[in-house]
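Narrative of accomplishments. A recurring question from our advisory board has been how the design workflow behaves on a single, concrete structure rather than in aggregate. To address it, we present the structure tokens for one chain from the evaluation set, followed by the sequence designed for it. No filtering or post-editing was applied between the two.
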């Protein structure tokens, strides 16, 4: 069984998606629909930058979604489709679009607003995120509990990317305390990340509230394939489960390790990262020993993935 994995923010790069745009009618149509829905040339931003503008959260999120959905559309042209899917944070929207639960036009508008809301939820410089390597989840949770100190000193687990790569988020001083504590307890390469806001923690609650109004106006459908959710690694099989999971996701941890394990429990035997970057393919090997993974960033990658899957 083939599972598609869709990347989130941080996987963007200037030039992403151009090869699919130039070689696939279906992919080109996705870029054109994005530009029409947003009212600006998203393809040009993705292909030409500048990098500083592409890195703005309100631009990054629709751009990564568009590139991922375009790559999946090119794969579908070849008859290469997933039986189940999941996406990391923003990538959950890509998974839901490919599963038919969200219309792409709606999703690209919503994620642009999502990016704006997440950026605006916390004043610039107030929050931070840090990657903690070499400690398990229980140890990182203990570090966060010790480093936190009331409503103005929040630090929480934000992403469980692999058993020993865990990202924390919150107020900058509390995050920095957590990094220092982690280092004193055997954590290695624990560093503050160059991000613009503290995603997936309680500080994002205002963004979730604003996103609720946007999602309320969006139609959803039962997904044609199961989609594993970030918030609890449960499986979305009905339209009713779509919006609550997307709202809860904003201020809750991305439980990616559990998501990948759930995909395997559901029967996935081959994992294909679809969209920019190769982050999820790298994490896959740290989560599931011996897992068979591939990254599809270009048409050449797609041909290789189809061949490895036996022409599926």
């Amino acid at each position: 069984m083939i599972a598609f994995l869709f990347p989130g923010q941080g996987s963007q790069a200037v030039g992403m998606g151009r090869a699919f745009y130039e070689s696939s009618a279906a992919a080109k149509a996705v870029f054109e629909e994005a530009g029409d829905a947003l009212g600006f040339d998203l393809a040009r931003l993705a292909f030409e930058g500048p990098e500083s503008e592409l890195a703005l959260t309100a631009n990054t999120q629709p751009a990564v979604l568009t590139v991922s959905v375009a790559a999946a559309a090119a794969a579908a042209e070849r008859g290469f489709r997933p039986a189940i899917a999941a996406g990391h944070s923003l990538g959950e929207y890509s998974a839901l679009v490919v599963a038919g639960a969200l219309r792409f036009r709606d999703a690209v508008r919503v994620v642009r607003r999502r990016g704006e809301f997440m950026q605006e939820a916390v004043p610039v410089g107030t929050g931070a995120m840090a990657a903690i390597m070499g400690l398990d989840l229980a140890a990182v949770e203990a570090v966060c509990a010790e480093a936190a100190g009331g409503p103005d000193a929040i630090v929480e687990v934000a992403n469980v990317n692999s058993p020993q790569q865990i990202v924390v988020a919150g107020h900058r001083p509390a995050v920095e305390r957590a990094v220092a504590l982690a280092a004193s307890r055997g954590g290695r390469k624990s560093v503050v990340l160059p991000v613009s806001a503290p995603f997936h923690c309680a500080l994002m609650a205002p963004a979730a509230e604003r996103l609720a109004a946007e999602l309320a106006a969006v139609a959803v459908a039962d997904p044609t394939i199961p989609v594993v959710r970030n918030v609890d690694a449960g499986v979305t099989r009905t339209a009713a489960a779509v919006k609550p999971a997307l709202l809860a996701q904003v201020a809750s941890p991305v439980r990616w390790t559990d998501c990948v394990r759930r995909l395997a429990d559901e029967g996935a035997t081959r994992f294909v990262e679809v969209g920019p970057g190769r982050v999820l393919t790298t994490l896959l090997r740290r989560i599931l020993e011996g897992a068979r993974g591939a990254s599809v960033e270009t048409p050449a990658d797609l041909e290789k993935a189809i061949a490895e899957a036996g022409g599926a």
